Amino acid sequence: MRLLDRYVFVEWLKIFAISLGVTLGILVMHDMYSNLGNLITWGASFYEIVLFYALLVPTLVPVVLPISLLISLIYVLGALHRNNEITAMRSAGMNIFSITRSLWVAGVALSALLLWLNADLIPTCTERSRTLYDNINFEQQLRNAKDANAVGIVKQLCFNNRRDGRLWFMNSFSQATNEGRGARVSVFGEGGAEKYRVMARKAVFDDVEMCWFFTDGKEIDFDAEHRIKKETVFDKKYFKNFTENPRIMVLSMRRVKDLSLFETKTIIDALGSHSARESLPYLVRWYSIWASSFVCVIVVAIAIPFSVSGVRTNPMVGVSKTFGLFFLYYMIDNVLTALGGRGIISPLAASVIPVVAMFVFALLLYRKAM
To answer: Which residues pair with 219 in a beta bridge?
Structure first.
């Protein structure tokens, strides 16, 4: 590495480390404001609290890494610009790429790091931190509750299993005991007509038999015209073909953007059809996680031309344009995500178009700056 490359890289790295630490600290403090009080109230030990935040920090990296990179690039390049160091380098016959080569390497390395984190570490940390948080909550509820079925309640649980043609609804579901109250399951045939319906006071997932059984219920069969053909009342009945995993059913009730990569893939597989409307938001989420890994390269490509604009331009103009452009990028990304989730455009296009469009635009700006 040349002396100049080391100089630019070290100056950037110092600011990047400070920016990353400060941004992470702010987000951790924000989470502490929301959740630390709950953990203490629920009786979490010091070890559990430390472990929770140790698992939480990696999940914040995809948010803070691009922001910290953008801030550090604008600060360092702006300082070089104000001190006329970039002008001196260009006067010595160096182009913009020669001056910022080390920053490009850093951007590519950070994108590779983010890709690995998204594919491996972050999903694991997301799921373990959520499980730890829920378990502490459930333990506190178990200590105070008279009925274990009142612990970890999910109200109005709905799940559409298109792969097996079953539509579930429960008035309430306990995550602690895998027991639902006020259950109804509609089973559909190949043509989309309802074949039969199971209604019961209680539905329980048997983790030994790996299926559901219902108590105090009835089974209603329908004919081809959807008229009631037969009603069967039962006290308790196992349905061996009802194998839906309660964890997947609960995950489907969470916000899509809160799901990890592994959880998103699990729900996509459970829904069974990539063309199903219920699958579309999860497919957009799946592709977006992968596409977002390359945002660090886009940050470098955008920040450099705006930050090293000519000496006659106020550096703050370039800074404002950079932040404005990234605001526009996130607006476009949100709009296309909504369109992809509704099936107006394909999930892959909704995830890739913002990244590709911004990267092409950034390269045009970069070429002009050179």
So the answer is: 198, 232
- CB atoms under 10 Å from CB of 281, counted, come to 22
Q: In this model, does residue 338 exceed pLDDT 90? A: no
- The Cα 308–Cα 8 span in angstroms is 13
| Three-state helix/strand/coil letters over 169-203 | EEEEEECCCCEEEEEEEEEECCCCCEEEEEEEEEE
Which tens digit of pLDDT belongs to each residue from 321-336? 667 777 788 888 888 8
Per DSSP, 152 falls in state S
Residue-wise pLDDT for 203-234, tens only, equals 999 999 999 999 999 999 998 888 888 899 99
Distance of CA 336 to the CA centre of its chain: 16
Burial class from Cβ neighbours inside 10 Å (0-12, 13-18, 19+) for residue 155 reads exposed
Amino acid identity, position 172: S
Confirm if 112 and 17 have CB atoms less than 8 A apart.
no
